[in-house]
Amino acid sequence: MKLGTLLLRNAAIGLSQLEAALRNQVLYGGRLGTNLVELGFIDLELLSSYLAELTGFPIATPTLLDDADHTLLEKLGGDDAHRLRAVPLGYLGEGTDTVAVGMVDPTDADAIDELVQRLGTGVTPYVVPELRALYYLEKHFGLPRRARFLRTARPSEGEVADDRRRQQPAGMVMPPAFTLEPRKRRASQAPIAPPEPPPVAIAYGAACERIDTAAHREQIADAFVEYAKGRLDALVVLLIRDGNALGWRGYLAPPATLKAPLDDLSLPLGGASSLQSAHDSGQIFNGPAPSAAHPVEQALWRTLSAVPEPTAVLVVPILVKSRAVNLIYAHILNASPPNQVVNELADLASRAQTSYTRLIRQARGS
Fold first, then answer.
1. What is the pLDDT of residues 197-241, one digit of tens each?
2. Three-class SS string for 320-347?
3. How far is the C-alpha of 309 from the C-alpha of 10, rounded, in Å?
4. For residue 111, is it within any domain?
5. DSSP letter, residue 260
6. Burial profile 276-305: b = 16 or more Cβ within 10 angstroms, e = fewer
7. Which of 42, 171, 184, 245 could serve as a FRET partner for 207 with CA atoms 20 to 30 Å apart?
8. Is residue 268 part of a domain?
């Protein structure tokens, strides 16, 4: 039985709520339970109980997660803990060689086998909701959650990038502020194409086919990234959530490199900017940044190492039900994007809209 079916059967949610959560899962990723919590349809405690019923595994409670064994945490390491979405809790009684581990997917046999090898012990999985696991990975290892998993408030005009509010679902307390030096790069961060080998552009028709036949959202974003190679100096696929544009996927033409992880990028959609214009109008923005100081674009350009600053930018919205769910940002440093590229990106965005609609329909019918 699936989580959505179990929740419907027990009248914990309604059909329209399940459909809304499935839609958000297609558009923004994350597990179904995560999207239900983010939409306010259930809380983390209720989700935990249903995940335990569904999987047959005990719950990794906040108390267990707070008191996690630091020796085991250090033995697993932050990067592997984040990759496996697992938090070692402690030994199951004195004299045992079995460790309880909170896991987002306690049925993942490959992850359990790897945990056994890494910890050198037996492993008993405990189930933990995705949002709670990410919170404790941040608390124990200093691994910042990606912007997609942060509940953000709309900043006041003039605020950009790191001025976002790091809020968490109801019932959770934020960890105390601290800094780890040097900061480790998460293995899950969205990659930017490496300098070597030189980028090879895929044909426009191939990009169309990849989007038209995409089986999930990642393939849609990756098609835009592959299309950008050899045509643009930079392209970023942005998620639209809570009045902010969040970094998701991107391409930089060598030798430029990212100044900060792309999936930590959060840009406000308030005030005058090329992103705000494309978002609000649902139309392509193509030209110089509209604000004289262009603070939003400046924040993006700093991340993209855009030197000199682009004289013109291109922002193409992807709409679902007349609402922008993605913005495709692109620039060429010393020129305006050619008309052919503008037209082709517009068509790819239209195809992405159709594919999103198809994927949402398939998710609802599954």
1. 555 668 999 999 999 999 999 999 999 999 999 999 999 999 999
2. ECCEEEEEEEEEECCECCCHHHHHHHHH
3. 56
4. no
5. S
6. bbbbeeeebbbeebbbeebbbbbbbbebbe
7. 245
8. yes
Indicate the DSSP class of residue 156: P
Assess if residue 239 is contained within a domain: yes
Nearest to 175 by CA among 149, 147, 140: 140
- Per the CB < 8 A criterion, the answer to whether 225 and 235 are in contact is yes
Range of the structural domain that residue 29 is part of: 3-42
Q: 0.70 cut: is pTM over it?
A: yes
> Per-residue pLDDT tens for 78-123?
999 999 999 999 999 877 899 999 999 999 999 999 999 999 999 9
CATH code, domain carrying 310:
3.30.450.40
SS3 state of residue 248: strand
Which residue bears the tokens 């649902």?
282
Q: If you average pLDDT over residues 18-33, what whole number do you get?
A: 95
Cα–Cα distance between 291 and 131 in angstroms, integer? 37
The two three-digit tokens of residue 336, written as one number: 């305006």
Neighbouring-strand partners of residue 335: 332
What angle (nearest 5°) sits at the alpha carbon of residue 290, between those of residues 286 and 296? Answer: 100
- Is residue 112 in some structural domain? no
Q: At what angle do helices 339-365 and 15-28 cross, to 10 degrees?
A: 140
What single letter denotes the amino acid at residue 248?
Answer: W
Find all residues with CB under 8 Å of 222, minimum gap 6, and list them. Answer: 210, 249
Per the structure, how many domains does the chain have? Answer: 2
